[in-house]
Design a protein that fits this description.
The structure holds 2 protein chains of 2 kinds.
Chain A lengths: L1 H20 L13 E6 L14 H10 L4 E3 L6 E3 L2 E7 L3 E6 L13 H12 L17 H4 L24 E5 L2 E5 L7 H4 L10 H5 L1 H6 L7 E7 L3 E6 L13 E6 L3 H9 L5 E2 L4 H4 L3 H6 L3 E13 L10 H10 L2 H7 L5 E3 L24 H11 L5 E6 L5 H15 L3 E6 L2 H9 L6 E7 L5 H9 L13 H11 L4 H18 L2 E13 L3 E6 L5 E8 L1
Parallel strand pairs in A: 1-10, 14-15, 14-16
Antiparallel strand pairs in A: 2-3, 4-5, 5-7, 6-7, 8-9, 9-10, 11-17, 12-16, 12-17, 13-17, 18-19
Helix pairs in contact in A: 11-13, 16-17, 16-18, 17-18
Chain B lengths: L1 H27 L17 H10 L6 H13 L12 H36 L4 H15 L2 H15 L17 H27 L2 H8 L4 H30 L2 H6 L5 H10 L3 H29 L7
Classes of the chains: A alpha+beta, B mainly alpha.
Chain lengths: 541, 308
Amino acid sequence: MRTTRLMVISMSAALVLSSCGGGGEDPGTGDADAAISVFNTEPENPLVPGNTTEFGGGQVLDAMFTGLIAYDPQTTEVKNAVADSITDVDSKVYTFKLKPGWKFHDGTDVKAKNFVDAWNWTAYGPNATQGAPFFSDIQGYDEVNPADPDGKSGPQSAPQPTTDKMSGLKVIDDHTFEVTLKNSSPVFKVKLGYTVYAPLPDSFFADKAAFEAKPIGNGPFKFVSRQVGTDVRLTRFDEYAGLDKPKFKDLTFKVYQSREAAYPDLVGNQLDFIEELPPSALAGQQHKTDLGDRVVERDSLINQTLAFPLYEEKYQNPDLRKAISMAINREEITTRIYEGSRQPADGLVHPLLKGYQKGQCGELCTYNPEKAREHLAKSGFTGTLKIISNADGGHSEWATAAANSIKNTLGIECVFEPATSLGEFRQKINAREMTDMYRAGWVADYPSIENFLNPIYRTGASSNDGEYSNPEVDAKLAAADTAPSEEESIKLYLEAEKMILNDLPFVPLWTQNTIGGKSDRLASAKLSAFRQLDLTSVEVA
Amino acid sequence: MGRYVLRRLLQMVPVFLGTTFGIYLLVWALPGDPFAGKCGERDCPDEFVAAMNEKYNLDDSIFVQYGKYLWNLLRGDFGETFSQVPVSELIANSYPVTLRLALVALAIEALIGVTAGVVTGLRRRGFLDSLVLVSTLFLISIPVFVTGYVLQLVLGLEWGIINPTVSSKAGFGELIVPGFVLASLSMAYVARLTRASIAETRRADYVRTAVAKGLPQSRVVGVHMLRNAALPVITFLGTDLGAFMGGAIVTEGIFNIPGIGGLIFKSIQAKEGATVTGLVVLLVLVYLVMNLLVDLLYGVLDPRIRYD
């Protein structure tokens, strides 16, 4: 009781003080004490970085935590954040030196052990976090997270790990720690800006329930309150040591039941930002009439593909796959349905990424009716094709268009078959029960070519749902993973991309722009390449 | 009377058990893995799925699962959602909101519906009668989401009289327009029901007697007629409160009201069995209590009806 009251008093005192003295810090950028509200979906898990991989929770945690490195929201370039220097030996043993002066919101220093403890906790199997697989590069991961002997569908469960510390993590001193990987990987340091790699304060390990009730981070915003199903309130952390200090004070993530429900609020200036408008608002360019210059648009690290279930005999013939790819008129679909907000893809790697090379897919991803029919004839396929996708989330329009494009070009029956929900759709994919080609897509976890290849195309990789397997590709990807320098690694990844495209286990379709909107009150608000509000860009008029 | 109430309350026990088991079975026995699609385009880690299965007893048979659930429920524990939020907290957040919305809607429905019904029932075939008949027909024929979106667009965005959506506090004032939308359909029914009922009682012997005694018009209509004519209307209003609480999905969605309807819808989609069962249990209780209240009101309104 006593402590609560004290907290309330000190908080309101801080509020009064800052509102008295506010406004004068940075006269050029408008109201520095303003409060803004941002659209959010209900976080699916308690707000713990290692256990959050979805949008609603991720957006809140990104504002509350800062990792070793950070990505430039606009260029996706990697910059040191908490890390002062990152050195490595053969891309296998990394040494991280932390900048002094970083503090958690409870006033304790951010030390090397906060990272090591957080990573160990997230990777430890019995904690059952969603982020655990991100630590599988580190030496000792298999000991803390032993594999289930008969897979998750089998009756046996994974054995209890013998240790809860990864042998590859070593604290050298308060501000230095060392990470040893299983194999060398130049891309490892690029991953570290993802939320699951954030540090956790000592209080988390002392009392997890208390932490979940009031999470403590080290980022530009600190937690104020959360009402489940309604909102999460944050406020600026004035002792934040990073350079990207926000230019406003209070940040409310407002939970809406749907994007459709949030849209009238945005139009009526009751909500300050929504990162992606609902499909109903985009239909017929309605958003341009409603919002005018308040529309915010940019390309983001997302691509859309058609995947083949390679375990189905029908799709094992590469000629059929090539025929399908060349029969889809990407230009027409992107301009007709998306009015140019999507760009036809010419490879598997996203154009925003460092090392991206144009035209990797070449003629295989170009609409060419004659060649398509030639390949179809060569494959000897007769019968009907289907495109399966969940119909929610605006997927039915393009899937129908692509099916028609295939049908008209190849002269064989091709239809769109909707699944009832994303859950049902994913379940069929996970169970390898897809009988026809299906929608696939990828949203980058971290800005690296590797993230668009390894998890999807390697034999047995976590998201290789089509069971694609090519030993040569695996070897090339492994060589790229362990290349001594980033340049060489990128070169090898591009070669692997070319080899994968030659097999065409997925048809690249297009990359995606995100179209959001802001209220009148915001003088400036940009989207980041990760489909979120770039908080550093926000200026309140 | 006391014995009647007690008997009715005891009857609630099997109804309660039957509905909760039915709902529990329907939700959890649905084909499909509740954890598919939960981690986006990526599969959830095995450890996560195993831990969740254990937590929700999904490895047990459905009967054992229900037994465990009921045991917890009887101790006041509604369980947790997949995101580890206590269901009781969700209920505590959303139930008052929906109850407020339902009460606002019920008040609007009763006030406007009964008034329009009485006025038109007394003066049939006049201008007012035709106007009410046409406008109720109009209301009945328009789906709720059209009324909702039109009012939101016109009052909220064009004229700026109301906020387009309801704030998280959802006070009574903000709920008037959504309440009107929710009530619009039933309001039309109440008006027609009252009109027919009033028209019928107007010819009853006791009304003629009351008029012959020289009682003032207001007393004849307010006490003698309305009291009897209200019986079918009360029945309708009583069950309607339950319908408002469970069926406000569309209205709550349009005005972003953080209430029960949207919560049930989302929980069914996410196969959140604990939440769905908990919410429906409470809805069943609302229905049962409302039915009991309506039955008891019968005795008050018409003393000829007795329960012994």
